[in-house]
Specification:
The protein is α/β, with parallel strands linked by helices and 372 residues long. This is Muconate cycloisomerase.
Length: 372
Amino acid sequence: MQPTIVDVSTHILDIPTIRPHKMSVATMQCQTMVLVRIKTSDGIEGIGEATTIGGLNYGGESPESIKTNIDAYFAPLIVGQPADKPAALRVRIDKAIKANHFAKSAVESAIYDACARRLGVPLSALFGGAVHDEISVAWTLASGDTDKDIAEARQMLDARRHNIFKLKVGMRPLKDDLRHIAAIKSALGDDISVRIDVNQGWSETQALRMLRPLADIGVELVEQPIHEKNLAGMARLTALGIVPIMADEALKGREDGFALAANQCADVFAIKIEQAGGLLRARDLIGIAQAADIALYGGTMLEGSISTLAAAHLFATVDKLEWGTEMFGPLLLQDDILVERMDYSDFTLKLPKGPGLGVTLDEDKVRHYTRK
């Protein structure tokens, strides 16, 4: 008999971070995630996850709204439906539910995890199969303290965990940000890749003032320097050709991807499965970038292990991720909810070999961190 979805459950988990994570939009002391568990009539369970940054500081969804909307709208829509047709389920969801990209991503990841587990194959197999068994992973330096960031970067290099670093900037005066970036780049040397993420923290004129000094310092990439709606400004900054410009917050779905590509608003796309609205939509964005000769980067919403692995399975199917990934979210947390921690070594993340996501939840940890 065809398997059907019999239950959808959600839980909000709060896990402290190893240090404050400072961005232009928020400072995070813990990460809150929504764990989605979908059970099917043949005894399979798939898991998915959604996170946000600072509640509603980053976007229009919060952990509380994600849980409420999945419980009230998604679950009744898909319970009783065939569990082995993820694309059909996505069509059904999109017809009834607008926006809610993060919630859609969590539900879709759980559906694909269950499908892959049923077939006994890794989740990546459902998207053509992995081209790579491991992916490079950048580390974000965001303590806000220059000396601490340098010490943290050196620790990562010594442990062979990361050799690519992204700096969160945009909260301080331009000259202070420039001194901070220059000190870190000088301390790490020419062979270490340093990029910056402004999270829309600058005006276009501020970005214009900063690009040449950043290039002189040796910064390789500037992520979302100005407001996501200022596409003309993004195009002007990209056309200068001083430092590659990467679109992030401006890239929320297929329509955004097409508009950015058509108007040459970025050199690089940061692909985030949650921001894109799920694995299928992220794959569409990858295709748009490839067709437009726009370079790719595997982005993160600072997810925990579940969503990080879902994204990693998709990214592993891409032949060229020119700028690597930043799938470091689980490493920012003090604890994990998996029985076996993910393998970060030799500057990469290794993909698990088992079916689906390839991991097992630690039920005691899930109970411990679930919000009461």
